[in-house]
Amino acid sequence: MIPPMIAPTSPQAEPQPNPRRTATPSAPPLLEVSDLTKHFLVGGKAGRGRAGGVKAVDGVSFALDRGETLSLVGESGCGKTTTGKSVLRLIEPTAGSVRLEGEELLGLAPSRMRSHRRDMQIIFQDPYASLNPRLSAAEIVAEPMRNFADPAWRGPGALRDRLAWLFAKVGLRPEAMAKLPGEFSGGQRQRLGIARALALKPKLIVCDEPVSALDVSVQAQVVNLLMDLQAEFGLSYLFVAHDLAVVRHISHRVAVMYLGRIVEIAECERLFTDPQHPYTRMLLSAAPIPAPGARTTRVLPIGDPPSALNPPAGCRFHPRCPMARPICRETAPPLIPHGSATGGAHRVACHLVS
Amino acid sequence: MTVPSPQADQAGRPPLLDIRDLRTHFDTPDGTVRSVDGVSYRLEARETLGIVGESGCGKSVTALSVLRLLPTPPARFAGGEIRFQGTDLLGLSEREMRRIRGNRISMIFQEPMTSLNPVLTVGRQIAEAVTLHQKIGRRQAWQRAVEMLRLVQIADPERRAGEYPHQMSGGMRQRVMIALALACHPDLLIADEPTTALDVTIQAQILELLRDLQAKLGMGIVMITHDLGVVAECCDRVVVMYAGRKVEEASVADLFERPLHPYTRALMASMPSLQGRGGRLAEIPGMVPAPQELGTGCAFAPRCPLATERCRRETPDFTGAATGHGVACFEAAPARHQPVVLHRHAGARP
């Protein structure tokens, strides 16, 4: 129904508010996202379908290196999942640029896009809803390999060998191949989802809350598996999550999103030990610590996140920010480098942070 | 034997809630499922007891048993007592039970959207709960509803009372649920994963609200959760459950300082820490057994690094209750004298 509103930026166009991360000039990053924007049209006859609609993602830029894990964190509705899916064009972005190994993906014809699909895979949050209940485990994992022919798995013997190898890699027994998804536990289903994502030897995997539906004791198994696979195959993860402890454990860098924009991005350790944006500080202070008496004070944002339908003017966080000044209500702060020691890797969008 | 609570009443009044050897079983076509199999715990007024465990461990079934919200059949109380201020709830008629439910014992659930009526305004739902249990006029009941919304810190409660659940955010709906549960000033509040569906910022607000309301209203709270962080922040004592049984009970400080049961220890070690990017997490091999698959012996034995022949043969009794830190494990005793190697959260955060 809704026509795609692709407006690919011309190659010369520099992303305006968010200057690109300083990458080493020799090797471009695996994934480069600039000014990614996704607006959803809302309301029909009621007359709310005004141009723009919900600005779910509104000018997001970041880069992801080979073998790196970048986490997107934030409250529900901040646009982290939409960003992940827009990168894969599972949701068609409204504007911006997504480059995989230097090649622009937005605006590519479906046939051209298809050749890139095998490099980019996704693991979903809900292992119960993301597997076809009528296919056997082997068929689920084999399906992408049937869709994309490759000498490595051409022919039934080679396909069977690769299936056995994939099942072993994710820690599933060979007997599991004949089972239906309904016969697996949550953790095993997530392993199956990981095997399916790995099948085509991707370079990038978008992990959309991959462990949040799992029991605590099983969560550790899946987190370890993801880290092992990254070490072995040099995978890049775009890790969308809300559990900050898991994020801190698994990430190299972390981007904090608020109402469709990145408000702070930094190397993981730095973000957790020296957060600059007031929202990041509050998000970190809200996470419960499993050590009695460890938390003495806590500063929380005021109220609920506002609707992305009608985001506040200026800095979008200002209505909930205890430190907001007049300028915060008027001008949106750009995402700019903070501190000289980080070489521009730590960026913050806040008027009050120098 | 039940665990003497540190807050035991001096005057010899019965405890607020005293569950003794509760066995809630389900009769299914595939046989009897022993979801809760001999669980005991106590709770005093103004106390918060955390019940921790993974899905299927029986923590929610225990809570639903207290309110007798399980359909019988297939559920069946195969044994035990649930004493609420001295009265055994399992012996009450449905009519008597209805006078307690929502009035003296209330419950809040994980998903506020599915537990609120979508076609009634929230004010009307709260007013209805009040008129059901108290002789009070409509207008007064509405006033009470507005008061309750104010108590749970909803801005502009007069206007909000006239709104429907779908007009509110998840955090606000959970506040409405709490207002609804507390409208009749219950003595006992059972909170079943009250913050699991919420963002961390909202979770922190709701937990703080529950603490404030407890200080104001003095109710006892049973906090069911899978999140040890939530336990550390808002509970006084903790019961750890595994496969329908209580495996450990201690004060919060004791549990985190010296977890005794191998399952508790493994659970703590398997959690990623907020204190640094780590190497591999300590995994617990295998998975939680389905209740119908339980055989003889300790249910954790197949996943336990300390398991012996005896663990696979006999079920360990719950011991050490008198000390205030009890455990159901044959191998846990020596651990008291060993440094707790699995535990990664001993150091306080700077």
From TrEMBL, chain B:
Q: Where in the cell is it found?
A: Cell inner membrane
Q: Does the keyword Cell membrane apply?
A: yes
Record keyword Thylakoid present: no
- Care to name a GO molecular-function term for this sequence? ATP binding
Q: Name one Pfam family in it.
A: ABC_tran
The membrane topology term of the UniProt record is:
Peripheral membrane protein
Q: Which Gene3D superfamilies match?
A: P-loop containing nucleotide triphosphate hydrolases
Annotated ABC transporter domain residues = 17-268
Q: Which domain of life is it from?
A: Bacteria
Query: What SMART domains does this protein's entry cite?
Result: AAA
Q: Which PANTHER family would you find in this protein's record? A: DIPEPTIDE TRANSPORT ATP-BINDING PROTEIN DPPD, OLIGOPEPTIDE TRANSPORT ATP-BINDING PROTEIN APPD
* Annotated protein name in UniProt: ABC transporter ATP-binding protein
Tell me the organism.
Azospirillum endophyticum
